[in-house]
Amino acid sequence: MNIAPSAAKPSFSWQFVVTLLMYGFMYIPILILAFYSFNAERFSANWGGFSLRWYVSLLNDSRIQSALLDSLRVAFTAVAVSAVLGTMMAVGLAKYRFPGKGLYRGISYLPLIIPDIAIAVATLVFLVSIGLSLNIWTIIAAHIVFCLAYIAVVVSTRLTGLNPHLEEAALDLGATPLQAFMKVLLPELMPAIFSGCLLAFVLSMDDLLIASFTAGDGANTLPMEIFSRVKTGVKPDINALSVILILVSGFLAFLSEYIRFRSERRRFRQ
Amino acid sequence: MSQTVTQPRNVSDTDTKLDVELRKVFKVFNGETAVRGIDLEIRQGEFFSILGPSGCGKTTTLRMIAGFEEPTGGEVLLRGKSMLNVPPYRRPVNTVFQSYALFGHMTVWDNIAFGLRLQNCHKSELQQRVREALQLVKMEGFARRYPAQLSGGQQQRVALARALVNRPTVVLLDEPLGALDLKLRKEMQMELSTLHRELGVTFVMVTHDQEEALSLSDRIAVMNGGRIEQIGSPSEIYEHPQTAFVADFIGDTNLFQGRVESSQQPHLQITTHHGLKLWVKPSSSWIESPSTEVVVSVRPEKIQVGSPAGDTPLNCCDGILKNVMYLGTHVHYVVELSSGETVTVMQPNRSRELPNLDSSVQVYWQAIDGLALPARSPEK
């Protein structure tokens, strides 16, 4: 047919091409990485058939496993501490009026925009100057800095959207301030706290810079282990590990967004 | 003006107990005085409204009764007990918030049971009382729903049930119907009124809607600028406003600025700034001496258009008809008097032929229908 309806768009518009290029630019490297993680050959340049041997070799790699364990320990501890402190910070900032509040709020969220390298160097210099030996706990302390700010931001956003009279309503019905917080405010904030935690967890698992500055000899996180291995050339088992990491963090990010989306929908479906 | 007449309940003034007392209550926020010395006595079982424009301090007053704000000065008493330093969770009052403030993560049932659970109410009693509360607001079928799954009117009912289930001494309602559309608002007004009559609990309602206050309340306090202008029954407030603000805020009125010319009984002669001479019946509350500045208020429905039959009333002016609005049950006239003032007139529609625009007409009213009020609110 020669006569096309005038409303139909040409199948190849320049917007489509640009979009395709952009996504290609973003995701082709990852796809190539995933592709070669199944390569039976030792050297990435050749395709030696499909194989899961690099995934199996990960299972037998005790260094990787202990690094993963360190990473998880750091992430879980840092996120747990930050969840409590970050929530308290967000609630306190929303609820009370005190002099210098704006400044305080600004300072609290600053770690989000300070470059990681600056946090890393500053933490290292500080730890050395007070004479603390570097180990896994110093990584945790450094990670709390940005996890805390992150969780506080997410919780604050939710708090501003919350009905300001909820807590008063609880008090009015006979709840003490503590009961009002535990029974009303905390459950209302839970989706935000959880989604903030998931994202902070992913950030902590992902961090190489701050961890390598504050780790000392004692600890070795997964990103640190990967980085030390790729210095001497990328081996296929690192490809496999990267694929696993991408999938897990992608899933966590999706989960966090999903939880937030669901709770927002419940709130605004009125 | 649709005014449902509320039946006066058997509350005699002599031996009524007071549920809420405010004594010289002040509230200052960051140097701004929101409430300036309020005295209020709310009787047991009364439907009391605090009415005023936004920013008049009415919500602050309610929040001080609930305990969310502490008065800067003065005292709040509930059932004769001072509420100084008594937190909201120890006060025998429950509030219905304008925004409802329902707990979104709880079902309707859990929302209503919240207060009872905190009191460690026995399980069987709790279930019975929650069920009764749901019945009271006609929401039996919605116990398992979440607030977000309810319409505005249904949320309003849940908020009411959540307050009433605790059997408070006083129910505080902060603009309870403000967020509803007109039709629903009328419905809920009826239900509020019925609920109040059935339960006999003291209701204190804050509203800016004068019609709502007039139709629901036993008594109304009109607030302006942090002060109470007048307290009285709806008809007292409407028929005998004590200040120009009250006369203007409640219903429509024609206000004439003027000064007292002579005060010979039984009437008072007033000359407006435009030179119009008016006769009014002096009000009992204050004594007008010659050359006092006054404001004369005449309700539009008390004025007649046309030539007076029989004796000429004391107030009879010539004017030109500037506008006629046909409202079905009523006709609304705007007449420019020869003195230069404009009056609005509201007359029931008697299906007569309407006078033409720009024709000369006469307007007249009885001296008793004009009210002389102090030109400025009395400073306290």
Task: Report on this structure.
The complex is a heterodimer of chains A (270) and B (380). Helices cover 74% and strands 0% of the residues of chain A. The mean pLDDT of chain A is 86. Chain A has one domain: Orthogonal Bundle (MetI-like fold). In chain A, helix 3 packs across helix 6. By secondary structure, chain A is mostly helical. Chain B has 380 residues and is α+β, with helices and mostly antiparallel strands. In chain B, a hairpin with a 2-residue loop joins strand 1 and strand 2. In chain B, helix 2 crosses helix 3. The longest helix of chain B has 18 residues. The radius of gyration of chain B is 24 Å and the shape is elongated. The two termini of chain B are 32 Å apart.
Gist?
The complex is a heterodimer of chains A (270) and B (380). Chain A has 270 residues and is an all-alpha fold. Chain A is 74% helix and 0% strand.
Name the quaternary structure.
heterodimer
| Outline of chain B | elongated
Number of helices of chain A: 11
Total number of helices of chain B: 8
List keywords for this structure.
heterodimer; A: mainly alpha; MetI-like fold; globular; B: about 375 residues; 8 helices; about 20% helix
